[in-house]
Amino acid sequence: MPKTAQRPALIERDRGLLWHPYAALDGPAPYAVTAADGVHLQLTAADGQTHRVIDAMSSWWCAVHGYRNPTLDAAAADQLGEFSHVMFGGLTHEPAIALAERLVAIAPGPMAHVFFADSGSVSVEVALKLAVQYQIGRGRPQRQRMLTVRGGYHGDTFAAMSMCDPVGGMHSAFPGLVAGQLFAPRPPQASYGPDGWQYDEEALQDWESAFRELAAAHRDELAAIVVEPVLQGAGGMYIYPPQCLRVMREVADDYDLLLIADEIATAFGRTGRLFACEWADIAPDVMCVGKALTGGYLTLAAVLMTERVGSVIASSELRALLHGPTFMANPLACAIAAASVDLITTHAGEQVARIEGELQAALAPARDLPVVHDVRVLGAVGVVQLDRDVDVPAVAAAAVRRGVWVRPFRDLVYTMPPYVSSAEHIAAIGAAIIGATCEVYR
């Protein structure tokens, strides 16, 4: 049972001092993390109670190997014994080279070049710059707009934000500052199960016609197509048919647009394939990866591109990709990432396949709840969608009391558990999500 103590000093010190994501300074008090190990977090609440909980969020989808992972700890310690950081301008080092070699070896298609960035959002910024530079190198400087679909999310920095859904995103809060991109309709929703992919064929045909028509009408101003493959993450944990990616690949080829795959959330096994593009058997021209890249130890992202794209940039007037973060290719992050990628390529396929079946079973009873609109699972992603917006603090607190940490958003109570979660952990996550939902909406 949780212990009761005085109001914790950490939370008192935090209040009014630190901004938290999408939260007011005087919003609900956060939980204080005092320890983490395996799939568990040790939390202290504002009322002084302590809770040992399963992290059903993988710390926003990145801590796929759990906490204090011995392999990643060893990689960090070994690199700390050498050097933790050097600038990447004019210098190079083994961790960056080794990680880049691993990434191009496992990526879908003929990836040949890697640009390391600070975070997922920054990697999208770099990819968009790259697309414009590519078109300039091809003699088409007027091609500067991007084509994407509604419902997406690509980050919180300005260029990345311009690619997010114009209705559900943050565009209206920054009038005149966010670039006007081109948005096709959201693809039809799909599901995946024992019988394969299920979706409305007529809806898919209608979407394809609309997408092709929009691209054709704006072909002379477009630089690239940007998309989260198969699963839109923060835009609503929305699953759509792989066939849509094939259409995008064809359109990109028809008009010499770059196809940019934002795999920051979906790469490294999360959807049941090493990369979500593999569901469609297509390869992008540019791919952004992050989150699970370092197993949640340090912030790092990468932009991968084909030889064709790289050669256009390299032979253009400027010859360089115009970006250079201070912590680009940080050696400590790269060393840990290489170890993380090795773990993923060795174990993630089997782990995610098992978790997918366990999530299907654990979340199935939620379909009988009156407040539930939909339940869906893809790989190690489990979603319970309500018929209303979630009372986030109430549902999170109810789940914590059941030994699980979740962070709902919009109308979704969802989980992206660490790949090292056991069957018992997944069952506990499902029971907590259902129990918390029943408690709050009884």
Write a structural description.
- The chain has 442 residues and is α/β, with parallel strands linked by helices.
- It has two domains: 10-68 and 348-441, Aspartate Aminotransferase, domain 1, CATH 3.90.1150; 71-344, Aspartate Aminotransferase, domain 2, CATH 3.40.640.10.
- It is built from twelve helices and 18 strands.
- A seven-stranded mixed β-sheet has the order 4-14-13-12-9-5-6, with helices on both faces. Strands 1-2-3-17 form a four-stranded mixed β-sheet. A three-stranded antiparallel β-sheet has the order 15-16-18, covered by helices on one side.
- The chain starts with 8 loop residues before the first helix and ends with a helix.
- The relative contact order is 0.15.
- Its EC number is 2.6.1.62.
- It holds the Pfam family Aminotran_3.
- The record marks 22 as: Participates in the substrate recognition with KAPA and in a stacking interaction with the adenine ring of SAM.
Distance between the termini: 24 Å
Query: What's the CATH H-level superfamily name of the largest domain?
Result: Type I PLP-dependent aspartate aminotransferase-like (Major domain)
Reported CATH architecture of the largest domain: 3-Layer(aba) Sandwich
Question: Main beta sheet, described?
Answer: 7 strands, mixed
Under CATH, the topology of the largest domain can be stated as Aspartate Aminotransferase, domain 2
Number of strands: 18
Helix content: 25-40%
Element pattern in H and E: HEEEHHHEHEHEEEHEEEHEEEHHEEHEEH
What is the number of helices? 12
Poorly predicted regions are: 1-6
- Which strand order spans the largest sheet, edge to edge or round the barrel? 4-14-13-12-9-5-6
Which of globular, elongated, flat, extended, rod-shaped describes the shape?
Answer: globular
Domain tally: 2
Structural class: alpha/beta
Mean model confidence by pLDDT: 96
Main location: cytoplasm
Family: Belongs to the class-III pyridoxal-phosphate-dependent aminotransferase family. BioA subfamily.
Function: Catalyzes the transfer of the alpha-amino group from S-adenosyl-L-methionine (SAM) to 7-keto-8-aminopelargonic acid (KAPA) to form 7,8-diaminopelargonic acid (DAPA). It is the only aminotransferase known to utilize SAM as an amino donor.
Pathway: Cofactor biosynthesis; biotin biosynthesis; 7,8-diaminononanoate from 8-amino-7-oxononanoate (SAM route): step 1/1
